[in-house]
Amino acid sequence: MAAEQAKVDPMHQFTIEPLFGTDHWSIAGYSIPFTNSALWMAISTVVMLVFVLGGMKRQLVPGRWQMAVESMTGFIDNLLAANIGPAGKKYVPYVFSLFMFILLANMLGLLPLALVGVHPFTFTSHFSATAVLAVMTFSIVLIVGFWRHGFHFFSLFVPHGTPVWLLWLIPVIELVSFLVRPFSLALRLFVAMMAGHLLLEVLSSFVISGFNSGSGVGGIVGVLSFVLMVSICALEILVAGIQAYVFALLTSLYINDAENLH
Amino acid sequence: MPQISQLAATYASQIFWLLVFFGFTFIVIGRGMVPKVMATVEARDNQIAGDLAAAEAARKAADAEEEAWRVQSNAQRAQAQALIAKAKADAAKASEKSLAKANAKLDLQIGEAEARIADARAGALTEIETVASAAAADIAQRLAGLSVDAKAAKAAVKEALNG
């Protein structure tokens, strides 16, 4: 019994393992094995490709699938139009890719595939992955900002109506809040995903050890944990959508700063 | 925490594969397919807007046609009313004229007839006077043996007749 309990390591699900004997792959001295994380990135890409391909019939009267794809692009289009304005149209490909990629990563990581012996891996629960996405967004903000406004982009750090006697302080605060953005963007997604999966894993270990203990109290704990786990699963599906939306929303807000200053 | 403990060993792989797959997603799906999907939506929206505009234009045209028809029918009705009124007035005038003519003719005839009657009466009166004065003169001669001249007899008869 004690040995069994020791096996339930809630962090084990986040372990990255090279697959298909690709440990030795490397480019310029950096090892780039095709890992389980990379596999689920590939699966997300393929699922997204299939999803969008199904909406490419370009019918005048859309079918269900085309309607679904069009409502997703329309959703991102509206988001950008509301936050950036007409200039937001050109960012739809990027924000749509970002939103769908994160959404599918989060959702696919929640699939109960362990029932058939496959372990889903949520690569958005690794900050080494979310940081790449956040840095990409931040780079776009910097490039667009300096491209469109030149050094005038620095006026972003002096909001309208700043009192003159505070001019020494406000830009510093604004600069810090600006520089924190990529970190908050990456960490928010990583922490939300990791916390959810961790919670599910811990609760499932309660269920297992509760029933295995054989005592009445253990059974009650097991049943309660199971009920809680089911509801948290529903919550996690919501969080998966919300985190993808938040990432896309903040990306559009940051790009708005770069496009229109403020 | 594998995210940290494995970081040194896996960061290159994570970054590389994420860039590969997200790059593929962005270029093939984001740049290649999403604009087509959105173009479809836009084409549909345009078509709907165009159809609505066409329907609106057709409705306006129908309204204008109906208005024109109403104006025309009103004009025709007014014209018809005018024609009827004119015909009525003409008829009234014509009948008045012929009535006046007939009246005048009748008046003339009545006047002539009255004149004739007056003549006849005057003639008859003169005759009666003449006969009465002759008879009076005759009577006076036979009864009284008086010889009354005709003028006096006539004056006496006239006085007696007229009171």
Runs of chain A in which pLDDT lies below 50 for 5 or more consecutive residues are 1-6
Biggest pleated sheet of chain A: 2 strands, antiparallel
Give the CA-CA distance, first to last residue of chain B.
167 Å
Radius of gyration of chain B: 63 Å
Low-confidence stretches of chain B: none
Number of beta strands of chain B: 0
Radius of gyration of chain A: 23 Å
| Sheet with most strands: strand arrangement of chain A | 1-2
Number of helices of chain B: 3
Describe the structure.
The complex is a heterodimer of chains A (262) and B (163). Chain A is built from 7 helices and 2 strands. Chain A has 262 residues and is mainly alpha-helical. A two-stranded antiparallel sheet of chain A has the order 1-2. In chain A, a hairpin with a 2-residue loop joins β1 and β2 (30-31). In chain A, α4 (92-108) packs antiparallel against α7 (216-260) and α5 (127-149) runs parallel beside α7 (216-260). The longest helix of chain A is centred in the last third of the chain and has 45 residues, at 216-260. Chain B has helices spanning 2-5, 7-144, 150-162. With 163 residues, chain B is mostly helical. The longest helix of chain B has 138 residues, at 7-144. The A-B interface holds A 11-12, 14-16, 18, 27, 30-35, 37-38, 41-42, 44-45, 48-49, 52-53, 55-56, 58-60, 62, 66, 69-70, 73-74, 77, 92-94, 96-97, 100-101, 123, 125-129, 132-133, 136, 190, 194 and B 1-3, 6-7, 9-22, 24-26, 28-31, 33-38, 40-41, 43-44, 47.
Q: Can you give me a brief rundown of this structure?
A:
With about 260 residues, chain A is mostly helical. Chain A is about 65% helix and about 0% strand. Chain A is built from seven helices and two strands; from the N terminus they run αββαααααα.
Throw out a few tags for this protein.
heterodimer; A: 262 residues; mainly alpha; two-stranded antiparallel sheet; 7 helices; 66% helix; disordered N terminus; B: 163 residues
